[in-house]
Amino acid sequence: MSVTVDAAPRRPLVRWLVFATVVLAMLMHAIDQTSVATALSAMQADLGASLAWMGWTITIYSVGQILILPFAGPLGDRFGARRVYLVAVAAFTLMSVLCGLSSGTVELIIGRFLQGLAGGVLLPVATAIVSAEFGPDRDRAIALFSTAFPIGAVLGPLAGGLILTFASWREIFFVNVPVGILLVCLGRALIRETPRAAMGGVDLVGVGWLTALLLSGMIAITRIGSFGEGWTGPASVVVAGAVALVAGRFLLRHLHRHPDPIIPPRLLTGHSLGVMNVMNVLFGAAVIGFSALLPHYAQIRYGMSPIASGGLLTVRAVFMIVVSAVAVGLLRRLGHRPLLLAGMAAITVALVLIALPPVHSGPEVWLSLGAAVMGLGMGFASPSSANAGMHLVPEQAAAVSGLRVLFRQAGAIVAVSLVTAASSAAADPAAANTVAFLALAVVMGGAGALAMRIPNQRGRW
């Protein structure tokens, strides 16, 4: 978004109230994103759905965020960040009600998709609001603002576990309602409108082909578990897979022909970015897939409670936050490649530990160890991987950052869809999940091999 005009300064208390308001909105988004992972088993039992389709409650949320990203900035420029922010918060709250009231899997999946759309709008417009409010101090304010997601990663699994311990999975969504109403009221009272600009063109055709590719691919993967249903199972996989191939082909052709495509082709393969993009797909499959699947795995293999299984993600998040601070301090001295390789090695070890049976300890301690090693690896790999892509084309850092999110979420969508489909079809879902974590370790090893080909960069860029 293009918010470059500084608004007239206001009293520090008001500015920080505005800051707290938008941070609370991002926390609501982040906590909802991570807490749902703890409720997969509960939702599956209550709605009577297969795990393969219940996994869509996680993946479809990511699809919504991916698809709305190209629109979020232009919408804020055209209608004003304040107005778009208020609509997004209200829509997120309303969709939370729809999710909580869902009587079937289809309703829940639709609600989660619409929630993902609203959540995907929040980040760019909230960033624009903070930038306009703090003027010359925007760099520090935005840096502080970016801590909302790590904090949400700590609180979300605990919140989901606590809610499931004392209530049902529906309250995970209903708890957003009073928070959302409060945020709309505070936003209307405190947030000023940002300067508006002409709305740039949005590649609607590209978004359409990307939507078709993601949804058909997810359907094809999900239907793999239906091979025992006669000819309709394999036929549905073939049809959905064919649609995905056609959509992918037309998307690539469109990207090379459109003057301002949703994904610039030069950022797909040029300047070693092709290696980075493939690495990000594999990284997202292993790391985000781990986060989405670990609570369910702990519950079905070891019978852990929702609060204990959700706490594993909190352990991971705490280690990630602490180690990230160390990694940021080492980036200029060592460059990003050594830190990236060290982080990926630790992530691979963590995935293997999670898959192995506990050694001289109970499952809670053993899985906590694996989660801690995963957090350590993510702490080294996340800051370094962000720099690894952006330093290649620093003049297009924002676009590269957006692509990193897109490719990682795409990898996560494939991983979660495959694992939930395989678990749903398996006679022993716990054993299937165990094999899945070992497979993710192999995927992470492949990402590490690609990372060795990325040019290193020390110092400033």
Automatic annotation (TrEMBL):
> A Pfam family in this protein?
MFS_1
Write the record's keywords in alphabetical order, separated by commas.
Cell membrane, Membrane, Transmembrane, Transmembrane helix, Transport
SUPFAM superfamilies tied to this protein? MFS general substrate transporter (SSF103473)
The species this protein belongs to is Pseudonocardia adelaidensis
Subcellular localization, as worded in the UniProt entry:
Cell membrane
Task: Please report the record's description of how this protein sits within the membrane.
Answer: Multi-pass membrane protein
Q: Does the keyword Cell membrane apply?
A: yes
Name listed for the protein in its UniProt record: MFS transporter
Tell me yes or no: is Cell division among this UniProt entry's keywords.
Answer: no
**Signal peptide interval:** none
Residues annotated as transmembrane: 12-31, 51-72, 84-103, 109-130, 142-166, 172-191, 203-225, 231-252, 273-293, 313-331, 338-359, 365-384, 405-425, 431-452
> Residue ranges of the Major facilitator superfamily (MFS) profile domain?
18-459
What InterPro entries does the annotation carry? Answer: MFS, MFS_dom, MFS_trans_sf, Tet-R_TetA/multi-R_MdtG-like
